[in-house]
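Dear support,

I submitted the protein below through the web form. The confirmation email said the job was done, but the results page showed an empty box. After a refresh the structure appeared. I'm attaching both so you can tell me whether what I see now is the final result or a partial one.
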Amino acid sequence: MSTIQSTVFMALQTNDDTRPIIEALQRDNPHAVVNRLPAMVKIDAPGRLVLKRSTVEEILGQAWDLQEINLNLISLSGNVEETEDEMILQWNR
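What the results page shows now:
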């Protein structure tokens, strides 16, 4: 029996605030596909997508509150599990 992995995604506005978030998503999710469009960036991943606060802070060189993503988040697909340290998108089975 084969297992089908559903795709999850996160779409963000294209601006200076989202560049470190997109870079962090790429670092922490090497299986993800980044689609750059004129006004947004859409990151698709089979099964699961993780955004880690620590990776964004490393890129920024300063503290970052995970809730700040909501200022530039356009849309997402998947069930969201969120702590102060990370946001995980995946489909609950």
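Response: this is the final, complete result; the empty box was a page-load delay. The beta strands are 7-13, 33-36, 40-46, 48-52, 73-77, 79-82, 86-90.
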